[in-house]
Structure formats: C-alpha cells, structure tokens
Amino acid sequence: MVSAIAPKLFTPFKLGGKKAPDSTPAETYGYVVNKLNDYDDLAYVHVIERRGMHAANVQVPEVGVTRHFRDAYDGVLVSATGYDREDALKTVEEGAADLVAFGRDFIANPDLVERLRVGADLNTPIGKTFYPQPGVPLESGYTDYPFLAEKE
C-alpha cells in the first residue's frame, strides 16, 4: 500500500482548492496511518496541524491531528505547524509526538535550537521571501535573518 500511494498526493486536508477525498477523513486517514504500523522499515510519519495548532479543526476537533494519529501509529511521529516553544515541549512530554518540526521559524532563525533552548524571542518569518517573486531581491530571506547574538 505504501508503495502504491507514495507517488501521489496524500493529504486529508483541502489543498490547492481541492476538497478532502471523502467526508470522513479522520476515520479514513486514521485507518491508513494505523496500517503503516505493519511497515517496520518506515522511518517516521510526519503530520501537520491545521495552520496553527490552535486553529479550529473540524475533522478531529476534540484532540487535534497529532493526538488522533498518535493513537493510531506506534512508530516515530513528527508533528508540525503552529508550535511555539511551550507547545512543542508539552506535545513531546505528553507523548503526542516524538518530535516537533519547525518550518517557518527554522527559516527565520538560523540559531533556532539555541533560541528554543534559552527561551529567547524568535525572529518573525517574512513570508514574501520564502519563494522567488517579482520585486523581492533574491538575496532577501533564508540567509539574512539575524542571529540572537547580533540582536543583543
């Protein structure tokens, strides 16, 4: 099954204007993720909370995406989107995920690990620099965010 679906878009959420493939995505994808337990060589499953973990989630409102899939999957579970330091620590400490990934904050903070370790403020990501676009210099973003030591 994994080899059959891997090359295809595999998401329970609306993406690019397309609706979820069925009316019960929590049950459907919970079943699929549970079946991934049969694959011993699968490194991890990576899930995302809807744009920010505190956003309303009509598909699994009572527990959130991460907890829903944690209950279905026994292997390494990585969760992303909308986490701050405290939420990330709580998510891992409570066993909802084994690891929390930081995308935008990783881009905007070249020393993200140190900032999280000491509880420092994070640089604010500048979304318009994530991808090349007219009017935005190519050298903007990714490599020019300040390090914590530079801000002090």
From TrEMBL:
MF term (GO), any: oxidoreductase activity
One Pfam family this sequence matches: Oxidored_FMN
Start and end residues of each NADH:flavin oxidoreductase/NADH oxidase N-terminal domain: 32-121
PANTHER family: NADH OXIDOREDUCTASE-RELATED, NADPH DEHYDROGENASE 2-RELATED
Name of the protein this chain belongs to: NADH:flavin oxidoreductase/NADH oxidase N-terminal domain-containing protein
